[in-house]
Structure to design on (208 residues):
């Protein structure tokens, strides 16, 4: 059986990833693909339990290094229980956040040594890298305004301060330079239809 394709969506808070993930899945299914939608942190029962620890509570609840370890523990279970089985079964996987979020949230913005993040990635993700990563670029003040309207209990990262979110934005903008073979920047400004037209153009060009 032909292996499925693995697409991840990345960006700062409120960048519109979830909305675009839903539109992308609908378009892929209309084109005849079987698609599994998932997210991080989370995506499997064990990983969802870890998510509740990471995204709730005070900003200083965990250090960035501890966050990284928790994120990769969740990611390990997510890969084992959800992502790898789906890909091996020929389904396409569309995931809202993946390992690049650890590179940027805990690494660039949190100050964790990049070598530590990459060692975790090599041990947990290994060769199971995404086929395509869409990086949504939106000014952090705009994204935070959107995110504030829907955060609810899961607002721990939104509360980390303007400097943190400026570093996030810069880190995400740098991803296509660091990983040009799989990362593509998406202008996330404008209405959802305009953004999706950019998304679909990239997906069809890169993955057919």
């Amino acid at each position: 059986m032909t292996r499925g394709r693995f697409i991840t969506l990345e960006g700062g808070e409120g960048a519109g990833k979830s909305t675009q993930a839903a539109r992308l899945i609908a378009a892929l299914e209309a084109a005849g693909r079987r698609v599994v939608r998932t997210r991080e942190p989370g995506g499997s029962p064990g990983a969802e339990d870890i998510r509740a620890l990471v995204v709730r509570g005070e900003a200083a609840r965990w250090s960035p290094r501890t966050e990284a370890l928790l994120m990769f523990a969740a990611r390990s279970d997510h890969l084992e229980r959800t992502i790898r089985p789906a890909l091996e079964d020929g389904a396409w996987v569309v995931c809202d956040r993946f390992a690049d979020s650890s590179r940027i949230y805990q690494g660039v913005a949190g100050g964790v040594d990049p070598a530590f993040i990459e060692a975790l990635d090599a041990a947990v993700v290994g060769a199971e890298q995404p086929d395509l990563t869409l990086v949504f670029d939106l000014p952090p003040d705009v994204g935070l305004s959107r995110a504030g309207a829907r955060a609810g209990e899961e607002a721990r990262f939104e509360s980390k301060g303007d400097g943190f979110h400026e570093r996030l934005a810069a880190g995400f903008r740098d991803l296509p330079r660091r990983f040009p073979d799989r990362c593509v920047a998406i202008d996330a400004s404008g209405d959802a239809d305009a953004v999706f037209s950019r998304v679909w153009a990239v997906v069809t060009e890169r993955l057919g």
